[in-house]
Design brief:
alpha/beta; Glutaredoxin
């Protein structure tokens, strides 16, 4: 399910943090639309499922001129290592250990129900065991909710703030069809 979710971003928000390449979000989105994916902690099975999903749709997104960028709460080394497992080590990544970008995009800490609710237990088993994403060490805030936003020219044009940590948005549906 894709929700219409558009927080108001300021110029300061778009220039708040540099990517591993030394670019701000404002600079990155000036060159092409950016699918900004805010991850849960890297040990989370749903974070790993998200990375696998992005790996699967990456060529479709890039063929439409979309840049995938990842926001995480870990060290750059830990993120690069994890992203390499999914063939995503070369995408722009933003280390946000203090969650400033998460907050700027309106992504908050989840409730107990959003993190540990029954639907999440079922999905955790499916993702962690069934799809073999496993779980790992907590790196970052375990209550941080994820989300995804399409940003073009510094403006959010589509977005999804997860209602449950186990939400699995179809990233291609966030991208407008280009004529």
């Amino acid at each position: 399910m894709i929700t219409s979710y558009h927080p108001d971003l300021t110029h300061e928000d778009l220039n708040r943090i540099l990517s591993n390449r030394g670019e701000t979000l404002a600079e990155l989105s000036a060159s092409a639309p950016v699918l900004m994916v805010f991850l849960r902690h890297l040990g989370c099975t749903f974070c790993r499922e998200t990375l696998a999903d992005l790996q699967r749709v990456r060529s479709d997104l890039e063929s439409q001129g979309v840049i995938i960028a990842l926001v995480h709460m870990s060290s750059d080394l830990a993120a690069r290592t994890m992203f390499a497992r999914y063939g995503l080590e070369d995408v722009p990544r933003f280390a946000d250990r203090h969650r400033k970008l998460y907050r700027a995009f309106g992504l908050r800490r989840g409730t107990l129900g959003q993190i540990f609710g029954p639907v999440n237990w079922k999905r955790a088993f499916e993702a962690g065991v069934g799809s073999r994403h496993g779980v790992g060490k907590l790196q970052g805030n375990g209550f941080q909710m994820p989300g995804v936003f399409l940003i073009d020219q510094g403006t959010i044009v589509a977005g999804h703030a997860h209602l449950q940590v186990s939400d699995r948005p179809d990233y291609r549906k966030l991208i407008p069809i280009r004529a």
